[in-house]
Amino acid sequence: MTWLRRVSDGVSRLLGGQPSSRDQASHRPDFVAEGLSLEKSNDLDGALTSYRLALRTSPDDPKILLNMAIVFTKSARYEEAIRTYRKILESAPTHPGANYGVAFLLMKKGDADGAIQHLETFLVAAPSGGDSARWISHAQATLRSLRGEPEVTETADDAVAREPVDTPVRHAAVREMQSESPQGELPGLKATGTDGLRHGNDV
């Protein structure tokens, strides 16, 4: 069947036609993988271009938008990062990665009320499994601080909550938390990048 389809597509091209949609899809560039590779090599502008091209075939895809928000954050383009996270939340209000990511950007702006709102939403629909307990602990510690509540004994993981929003561990947390449902009702953990969690020197 594959051989016949190739012959058919070849004849179609000779006659001025177009290859089948399946054949076109098989040759379509993987712009998301390309974007992740460029981002890893610190070509942030190139990564954004690739993610934008990916959006042409998958408009409003939350995974692509999440990658874009992270790149905007790495580029210190915080307003664009916030807008991108909010675009995800328009269709998936409980998306854990978007709520977590935008909360810390709002904190950086001094919008404590906004940060509290998104951290509370994150905690209500927090994912389970993997490193989720660590991110939940971060969110809870940050909420206590924002509300002026008494501090509890801090663990080593809690200290990460005080890290700047554009550190590798923060990006890893946001990227790890994906929603399994397009509506964001059944949040779970799913890495969007081919390189998994990216700690170390990936900034």
Notes on the structure:
The protein is mostly helical. It has one domain (about 30-190): Alpha Horseshoe (Serine Threonine Protein Phosphatase 5, Tetratricopeptide repeat), CATH 1.25.40. About 60% of the residues lie in helices and about 5% in strands. The chain has ten helices and two strands; from the N terminus they run ααααααααααββ. A two-stranded antiparallel ribbon has the order 1-2. A hairpin with a 7-residue loop joins strand 1 (about 175-180) and strand 2 (about 185-190). The longest helix has 16 residues, at about 130-145. The protein is elongated and about 55 Å long. It starts with a helix and ends in a 14-residue tail after the last strand.
Q: What structural class do you assign from the helix and strand content?
A: mainly alpha
Question: Which architecture does the CATH hierarchy give at level 2?
Answer: Alpha Horseshoe
> How many strands, which pairing sense, and closed or not: the largest β-sheet?
2 strands, antiparallel
Q: Over the alpha carbons, how many angstroms does the gyration radius reach?
A: 20 Å
Q: What count of domains describes the coordinates? A: 1
| Approximate strand percentage | under 5%
Briefly, what CATH class?
Answer: Mainly Alpha
The general outline is elongated
Strand order of the largest sheet: 1-2
